[in-house]
Amino acid sequence: MLTANSIILSLDSERQTLAALGQVLNVVILVACVAVLAAVVVPRLRPRLRMTLAGLVGALTVGELALLWFHVRLWQLCQVTDPSTGLVTGSFAVPIWIESEKLYVWALLVAVLALVARRHGDEMRPILAVGAVALAAGAVLVSQPFTAPLPDFFAQYTSYLTASNSGDINMAYSAFRSAESSRLYFYNAWYMWVHPPLLFFSYGAFVVSFAATLLMVIRRRSSYEQTAYRWARLGYLPLTLGMVVGMPWAIIAWSGDAWWWSGKVNMSIMMWVLYTAYLHSRIYLRRRGMWKVVAVLAVLSFVALVLTYITTYVVPGAHSVA
Amino acid sequence: MAEKTEHTSEAASSGTGPRSRRAGWDFSLMVATVGLLGALGLQSLVGTLYSWWAYRTVPGWEQTGYAGFIDVMNLIAGPLVIALIVVMGLCVPKRLFSRRTLLAVSAGMLALGVGVSVVRGSFLTGLGVYLGVSAFIQVAVVVLTIADAGGLEYVTEGRLAKVGSGLLHLGFIVFALTIVALQSSSMMMLAFMTSGVLLTGGSAMSFYARSSSRGLADER
What we know:
Shape of chain A: flat
Helix content of chain A: over 70%
Largest sheet of chain B: none
Largest interface: A-B, 49 and 50 residues
Number of strands of chain A: 2
Strand order of the largest sheet of chain A: 1-2
Oligomer: heterodimer
Radius of gyration of chain B: 21 Å
Number of helices of chain B: 8
Low-confidence stretches of chain A: none
Distance between the termini of chain B: 29 Å
Strand content of chain B: under 5%
Number of strands of chain B: 0
């Protein structure tokens, strides 16, 4: 039988284990990043780019497995108990792509795409590799998923445990309601297991599409446009589905809150309408000069994607951590 | 790239027959759609920048100014969304009717929507009726396309791509209808999921049908 004190002790122990693993993993990932960058920058090392990318993917995958183990332990430990009945209502199933782990998942995805890209692979790979390195370094140095995991989740859950242990039934009940609400409508919600991964996959595909668009603008060859389009259409499908399934969840979970026209929602709409405009206008690509319009829309769409991501951390609102 | 595309564009633009007029009409609708989508995107960007500024400089803005901000955003977005829905309304029955009949049908649909708005005193009800009629016509378009009935005009080639395009437009209409009329209904979740499946499935068919048919042709 888990008690608040035993949960706190076990969580501390698991966090220390993850941090110890993470200190080693951080070094390995950063070394892999340096190796990839060297292979991009030094012409003599360019033939080794795929190998170094495979190393980065391997290091990031080991890290992801460590995070997966940590989340399984959270599922086993982080229970919520109704103070009025003493019954356990459930455990937290924390998705592996939220808070401090978001950038990490994106880095892993882009690194995999850089490794497996086939069409124009030799030209696209260096661009994608630099993107993967930037994301991986950002994840390790800024987000710190191993040494400072899930800060918001732990702040809320620790506060719930403290209130449960306080002996004040009103405080305990208030903390229980807050924790249970988060568990049901956020962490354990089906939507959290569908909406973010769909968007991450689309973001990854759009990164590849943007790399091909850059090559098209620089080298003026239509085959790059084809590659950009292929990846953009692949990204557009999960983006559309992810956004549509997010809408009913927002209506239910944020009922009464001011979420419509909030920063992140605005920017997501902007990104989607721009990608829609890009793919729509492409039907007439063969018209004179139309490829320039298509290229501008493709670049603007990707800029909107980056701004959408940044908005989460900069502009306050319902769908934000600013 | 420019060299490669010029021949095709000249060939397309030199024609004066019904097919090239149809292409010109379709292109105009595409330009209008892209322009409206761009305007909505710009509005979203300006709205985000404004809310970022307001959060930083106006103390307690979420409590005092957010409701007014939403009203202004709705006021600006309203005409854009209505125009988008009207353009979509023009896109939808264009498969079934000639251009003159199409304009008459579209004007009739608009008049019906405005009439219902006036009679019922509710703009959203009128919009809902307009979208409902659009959805009905679009379902007919999809059924006729699946049945491979003659007389339907599409920019795209191949039946799968045409069905995809039809489903995609139907998805947009169902999505708009859900936002306008079904947000508080018990059907809300089902309607959203239906629009999600139609939008994604329709997009996938539109995107991949042509490449798969090309692949089959190559194999032959």
